[in-house]
Amino acid sequence: MNVLSTFSRVVLGSALVLGAHAALAQQQLVPAQSEVQFTARQMGVPLEGHFKKFSAQVAFDPTKLASSKIAFTVDTGSATLGSRETDAELPKPVWFNVPQFPQAQFVSSSIKALGSGKFDVAGTLTIKGNAQNVVVPVTLTQAGATTTATGALPIKRLTFKIGENEWADTSMVADDVQVKFKLALTGVGKL
Questions:
Q1: Residue 72 Cα distances to 8, 16, 23, 104, angstroms
Q2: At CA 75, angle to CA 73 and CA 77, rounded to 5?
């Protein structure tokens, strides 16, 4: 009887865990309503760009932040500044080195609620094989079945070796780059 009771608890517990994972697995990125932009400065002039391809794996429960996880991947070869000449340079080794590092990734390690739909998402950002711990401020808003995560993260491009050799001169291209995102998600519970 004791073995049967233990077995029943394991099966029931497993079913609950699988049910919870199934609910979290329903959280999906809506690419058509999402964007990842960046702003750099060349000789003081702002250059606006964006990434055309990115994905997210989200297991976010606002009532269980300790077990919530976010992984975000950007295809570096999809970067565009809107100019054919510049876009042809971005995949090269001195910039994103797309053949060797086709993706940049952020993986969360903790999420802290700040109130009013604001969160600090700590994690590791890896670009061109260079990993840095960062904290990304994120604001969540909900409209119907869609939850929108917005935020901005300043990065230093030279920390990630973006723009090497002659392009490491910050008088030509500033070291500071602002990354902004708007990610539309479905399946997130009520905030």
A1: 37, 27, 19, 8
A2: 160
| Domain range list for the chain | 27-186
Tokens of 174: 């500033």
Nearest to 136 by CA among 104, 161, 111, 103: 111
What is the chain's mean pLDDT, rounded? 88
Q: What is the reported pLDDT for 1? A: 42
Q: With beta carbons less than 8 A apart as the criterion, state whether 59 and 27 touch.
A: yes
Distance separating alpha carbons of residues 149 and 75, to the nearest angstrom? 19
**Structure confidence by residue, pLDDT tens digits, 23-51:** 445 689 999 999 999 999 999 999 999 99
- In whole angstroms, what is the distance from residue 126 CA to residue 110 CA? 16
Classified by CATH at the fold level, domain 27-186 comes out as Lipocalin (2.40.128)
Q: Which residue has the tokens 């300790």?
A: 66
CA–CA distance, 91 with 126 (Å, rounded to integer): 16
Q: What share of the chain is helix, strand, coil (3-state, %, to 5)?
A: 25, 50, 25
pLDDT tens string 92-145: 999 999 999 999 999 999 999 999 999 999 999 999 999 999 999 999 999 999
